[in-house]
């Protein structure tokens, strides 16, 4: 994602929020979520819920907590490193992640109402590694994105948070935030690359359950 994201006002307090610690007790936290949750099938490119901006999360109660549990279960079942709510058909701005960074350190967490933080140009070093998406099964493409990213948002209780990541995790934070604004990584590819990715997808069989397109 070398292009700029939409800029929206940050939630109150988010600019002062501390960076979350998302590297502790990863295994136990991720397991607890997924054991409470149920894996749901994954929506794929062409499903309208993936191609429009999701609604803001405004209720931080039991229903949201249950959704997050289902998202962790779905992410694990599909062997993903990040999952946005609209990838299980839910129109709400929330994503979960379980992703290693540049140093191989695992990060596990949840972000509601994410807003990308604009970073100074000197922090925008591009990394052109490969990228894939559970909603574009069986396909990969190189895509240049900044190798460091920060997002502000809220945790599952509504408290302001700030998350930062390097390398693959930076890519994940950008990719998942994009999802919630209705943007897939293939929307950032050239026409030719996009065509190639869709061909790869057409020629493969997903390893997990998907939602048939309407
Ligand atoms: Zn994706």
Automatic annotation (TrEMBL):
GO terms of biological process kind: translation
Q: Which CDD domains does this entry report, sorted A to Z?
A: Pep_deformylase
Note the Pfam families from the entry.
Pep_deformylase (PF01327)
Q: Which InterPro entries match?
A: Peptide_deformylase (IPR023635), Peptide_deformylase_sf (IPR036821)
Active site positions, chain numbering: 176
State the free-text cofactor note.
Binds 1 Fe(2+) ion.
Per UniProt, Fe cation binds at 133, 175, 179
User: What are the EC numbers?
Assistant: 3.5.1.88
Q: Which cofactor does it need?
A: Fe(2+)
Q: What class of enzyme is it?
A: hydrolase
The record's section on SUPFAM superfamilies has:
Peptide deformylase (SSF56420)
Q: Keywords on this record?
A: Hydrolase, Iron, Metal-binding, Protein biosynthesis
Q: Which Gene3D superfamilies match?
A: Peptide deformylase
Q: Name one GO molecular function term.
A: peptide deformylase activity
Reactions catalysed according to its record: N-terminal N-formyl-L-methionyl-[peptide] + H2O = N-terminal L-methionyl-[peptide] + formate
Q: According to the UniProt record, where is the region Disordered?
A: 1-21
Q: What does this protein do?
A: Removes the formyl group from the N-terminal Met of newly synthesized proteins. Requires at least a dipeptide for an efficient rate of reaction. N-terminal L-methionine is a prerequisite for activity but the enzyme has broad specificity at other positions.
What family does this belong to?
Answer: Belongs to the polypeptide deformylase family.
Q: NCBIfam families, per this entry? A: pept_deformyl, PRK00150.1-3
Q: Please report the name of this protein according to its UniProt entry.
A: Peptide deformylase
User: What organism, scientifically named, is this protein from?
Assistant: Streptomyces chumphonensis
The uppermost taxa in this organism's lineage are: Bacteria, Bacillati, Actinomycetota, Actinomycetes, Kitasatosporales
- The gene for this chain is def
């Amino acid at each position: 994602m070398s292009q700029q994201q939409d800029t929206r006002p940050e939630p109150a307090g988010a600019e002062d929020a501390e960076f979350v610690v998302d590297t502790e007790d990863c295994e136990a936290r991720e397991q607890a979520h997924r054991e409470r949750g149920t894996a749901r099938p994954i929506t794929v490119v062409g499903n309208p819920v993936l191609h429009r901006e999701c609604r803001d999360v405004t209720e931080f109660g039991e229903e949201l907590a249950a959704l997050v549990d289902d998202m962790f279960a779905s992410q694990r079942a599909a062997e993903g490193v990040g999952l946005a709510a609209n990838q299980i058909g839910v129109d709400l701005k929330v994503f979960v992640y379980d992703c290693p960074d540049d140093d191989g350190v695992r990060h596990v967490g949840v972000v509601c109402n994410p807003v990308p933080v604009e970073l100074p140009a000197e922090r925008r070093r591009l990394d052109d590694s490969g990228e894939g998406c559970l909603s574009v099964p069986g396909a990969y493409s190189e895509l240049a994105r900044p190798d460091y990213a920060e997002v502000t948002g809220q945790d599952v209780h509504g408290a302001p948070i700030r998350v930062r990541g390097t390398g693959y995790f930076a890519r994940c934070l950008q990719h998942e935030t994009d999802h919630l604004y209705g943007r897939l990584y293939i929307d950032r590819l050239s026409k030719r690359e996009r065509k190639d990715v869709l061909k790869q997808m057409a020629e493969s069989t997903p390893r997990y359950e998907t939602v048939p397109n309407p």
